[in-house]
Design brief:
The protein has 104 residues and is mainly alpha-helical. Helices cover 87% and strands 0% of the residues. The protein is built from three helices and no strands. The longest helix is centred in the first third of the chain and has 43 residues. It is elongated, with a radius of gyration of 23 Å. InterPro entries: 2TM_dom. It holds the Pfam family 2TM. This is 2TM domain-containing protein. Keywords: Membrane, Transmembrane, Transmembrane helix.
């Protein structure tokens, strides 16, 4: 009974992580679309209110960039691409590969 409960708990935890990752990727795609549109707006902007809209676009870009960074940090929990465990695992793989080639 306890093992079944732990399995269900792990499943729900994994489902929650996948949901957060999916939402992050949706926000990231939206961010890239809006950044492209704002940069195009900055490129074509002219007229008497250009200064206001220039700063308005810059504030949106900076604010949303900070939000995406914080959201990504929350989703990935500060994981770095190349952790120490990854280095150790890769070293073991290469050592095993070298050992098998010598004896074949």
């Amino acid at each position: 009974m306890s093992a079944e409960k732990n399995t269900e708990k792990d499943y729900l935890k994994a489902k929650k992580k996948v949901y957060h990752l999916k939402v992050f990727y949706i926000h990231l795609v939206g961010y890239f679309i809006v950044v492209a549109l704002l940069l195009y707006n900055l490129y074509i902007m002219e007229g008497p209110h250009a200064d206001f809209f220039f700063w308005f676009d810059i504030i949106i870009l900076v604010g949303w960039t900070v939000f995406i960074i914080i959201h990504g940090w929350h989703v990935f929990k500060g994981r770095i691409v190349f952790k120490k465990e990854w280095e150790t695992r890769k070293m073991k793989e290469y050592l095993n590969k070298e050992n098998t080639k010598r004896w074949e």
